[in-house]
Amino acid sequence: MHDHHPSCTHSHHRVGSRLEDGAAHADDHARWSRRDFLARMGLASVGMGFAVSGVPVHAYSHAPLLEALGALETNRVLVILQQSGGNDGLNMVVPVSNDIYYRARPTIAIQKQEAFLFDDNTGLHPAMQAGLEPLWGEGRMAVIHNVGYENSTRSHFEGTVNWVTARDQGGTDGTGWTGRFLEDTFLNGPPLEHPLAVRVGGASASLFLSNAGNLGVTFADAQQFEQFVALGGYYDVDNVPQTVYGEALSFVRSVTNASFRYVESVQNAVSDTQNLYDAYPNSSLSNSLGVVARMIRGQLGARVYAVSIGGFDTHSNQGGAEGQHANRLAELANAVHAFYEDLKADGLDEHVLTMTFSEFGRTLDENGSNGTDHGAGAPMLLFGTGLNGGLYGTASPLTDDALYGGDPRFTTDYRAVYYTLLQDWFGLPDEQIASVLGRPYDNLGFVDPSVGVGLEAPDPTAAFHLAPNYPNPFKQATTIQYALRQAGHVQLRIYDVQGRLVSTLIDEVQPRGAHTLFFTAGALPSGTYLYRLDTAGQTQTRQMTLVK
Fold first, then answer.
1. Alpha-helical regions (H) of 260-390
2. In the chain, fewer beta carbons within 10 Å around the N or the C end?
3. pLDDT at 197
4. Residue 57 to residue 185: CA distance in whole angstroms
5. What contacts 242, CB < 8 A, 6 or more positions away?
6. What digits encode the pLDDT tens for the residues 185-225?
7. How far apart are CA 102 and CA 114, in angstroms?
8. pLDDT > 70: what percent of the chain?
9. What structural domains and CATH numbers belong to the chain?
10. Out of 27-31, 33-37, 142-146, which region has the weakest mean confidence (pLDDT)?
């Protein structure tokens, strides 16, 4: 019980967002926790009928949902890391030169001399330094200041739903932005035998929900993943009572296991793989990321993974440089460090970006319990070799006109982060991004366009093949790869959408095998172009988009 707290001096707080709101606060947490429990158990209502670990059974036979992810021909992966509970962004990314911050937090503020400094005005919580300083120093970490959206209600439930659906506050869309991305992008071709997305742990189940079903597979934790691989499904069909009931239970479990089409692909992906970094910390998040690393290394084929870490609802005894919040941040930083050390062992780190998010930030003022209450805007962190590392967006000055009922008002719309990832990391054209997010947003520029890891190199012994260019769309230059089964005369030409020849890139005899061409647009105007490869009576054409 928490009986003695000062009254809020701000008029815009939502009832239930603070400890002192009593029963309303307890009800808010009960609703959030109940929804989270149901989602983890695969019982949350998504208008679909019976589900196994969040995936509707009938979706397994719904071919349009299992679209050919290979059509994108990308080896890029996004890992979404949810900081569940509402992370205090002001103590994670610290405004070390702002006196307002220090006056508002006399007990829990992070002192400038304690922080790991990004620059004279911004520092990182010291508990994260050991894990993240190497990533920051190598340009593999980006910080986006003060991310959020209009009219935050400071509700755990609504905040989480908004972040995973990319809708405005009060919107009705219940599908996840990653689910819409997967559905909209991979719409043709035969069904895949591997999942498009994987969730390990308590990250929101709605992330992978599309208009036609759930496109991801869920494991409650790393232990359930190991059980799934060992048993060939979620459920043990042998260890049941030796009774009529037990026989029936075994049958139901075997039918459920058999209905899950991805068993073989997951087993094959991890059967001969292991983590190549032996110093993973002993934590739930580390275990989840270790599982993700094995699936990526085993070439499972999923393009989005989701993991989570809880414990960020720090209403009381939050602590400053040490304490419960510091412990959660250290766990996150050390787990991410181990994950990228693991991936770096065989070059997979170039293929993987990780993005953090939390349903909201916290209040500027510490409360009477040496904690913080539900807030609005907060920073996001991104990790990976494919980043332009650094600071992005605008930090809140924390002045009265920059607050939202006592919280830092957001300065970067969270969908601008999603837009940048979809455009620059996955290479989606604007029209596809608009169908996922509803409209264009600012490109924040944190993806490094020079990291050319978007495509698998063509197999030199494979049939004639023209790969999608990368990046696409592109601003000035892009890479085109192709493979020839045999030596011969080759023409590679670029046309505009009216069919007029724009440029001839190759017109010569070339040997068999894989070839790579770096194309610079020069004075070409923005627009859509076609590039066509001709050789030995074979022709293949692809589309690319130039955006200046």
1. 263-271, 284-297, 324-344
2. N
3. 78
4. 23
5. none
6. 654 444 556 677 788 887 666 776 666 566 677 777 888 77
7. 13
8. 73
9. 19-437 (3.40.720), 465-546 (2.60.40.1930)
10. 33-37
pTM of the model: 0.69
Q: At 201, phi and psi to the nearest 5?
A: 100, -160
**Predicted local distance difference test score (pLDDT) of residue 198:** 83
Q: Is 100 exposed, middle or buried (0-12, 13-18, 19+ CB in 10 A)?
A: middle
Complete DSSP assignment for 132-166? HHHHHHTT-EEEEEEEE-TT----HHHHHHHHHHT
CA dihedral for 193, 196, 202, 206, sign (positive or negative): negative
| Residue 91 CB contacts under 8 Å (≥ 6 apart), including other chains | 105, 108, 109, 110, 125, 318, 320, 325
Bridge partner list, 209: 214
- Token pair recorded at residue 280: 């993973």
* Per-residue model confidence as pLDDT tens digits over 351-399: 899 999 998 899 999 999 999 998 888 999 999 998 989 999 999 999 9
Q: Which long-range contacts (CB under 8 A, 24 or more apart) does 160-169 make?
A: 160/32, 160/84, 160/204, 160/359, 161/204, 161/206, 162/359, 163/204, 163/357, 163/359, 163/414, 164/204, 164/206, 164/207, 165/206, 166/414, 166/415, 166/418, 166/436, 166/437, 166/438
Is the distance from CB of 414 to CB of 147 less than 8 angstroms? yes
Rg over alpha carbons for the chain, rounded to the nearest Å, is 25
* Amino acid in the structure at residue 232: G
Token pair belonging to 338: 């181990």
- Pick from 202, 386, 158, 195: which is nearest to 306 by CA? 202
Going by C-alpha positions, the residue among 277, 383, 281 that lies closest to residue 334 is 281
Beta bridge partners of 306: 80, 199
Q: Rounded distance, CA 144 to CA 239, Å?
A: 49
- To which residue do tokens 């690319």 refer? 544
| 325, 327, 329, 332: CA torsion to nearest 10 | -140
Beta bridge partners of 466: 482
Question: What is the residue whose two structure tokens read 């190549």?
Answer: 276
User: In this predicted model, what pLDDT tens digit does every residue of 449-468 receive, in sequence order?
Assistant: 766 544 444 444 455 778 77
Burial profile 229-250: b = 16 or more Cβ within 10 angstroms, e = fewer: bebbbbbebeebeeeeeeeeeb
